[in-house]
Amino acid sequence: MKTLYFDFFKDTIETKINTIHRISVYLEENDSYFMPCQFIEIIQKNDFYEIKAQILDTKGYISNLCLDKKFLFGYPNRTIGYGILKKIE
After folding, report:
1. 12 near 52, Cβ under 8 Å?
2. Residue 88 CA neighbour count, 13 Å, CB half
3. Are 9 and 79 spatial neighbours (Cβ–Cβ below 8 Å)?
4. 86 — alpha (psi -120 to 50), left (phi > 0) or beta?
5. Which stretches does DSSP call E strand in 1-89?
6. In terms of pLDDT, which residue wins out, 3 or 13?
7. pLDDT tens, 30-55?
8. Which of 5, 25, 50, 76 is the most exposed place for a label (fewest CB within 10 A)?
């Protein structure tokens, strides 16, 4: 498991995010590699959320090369929002 930090933007106002549900996350450039994700911490800011998430990256795909890249949460054509990767632990 990797711990990642995102600036997260919801697709719609009605979208609810919490630390209970799991969701898939994938790099916008690579929609063929989905990773299970669970939000661990959610901090609401003015127009976005700061998210701390645990992600199962079995192929070791996530690295510092992915910093500041856009990740989508959900599945193609059915996302709840997107996040910009800010930090990897």
Report:
1. no
2. 16
3. no
4. alpha
5. 2-10, 22-27, 35-44, 49-55, 70-75, 78-88
6. 3
7. 888 999 999 999 999 999 999 999 99
8. 76
In the chain the first and final C-alpha atoms are separated, in Å, by 10
Helix (H, G, I), strand (E, B) or coil at 25: strand
The predicted-structure confidence for 9-34, as pLDDT tens digits, reads as follows 988 877 888 899 899 999 999 888 99
Residue closest to 61 by CA, chosen among 22, 33, 25 = 33
d(CA 68, CA 81): 16
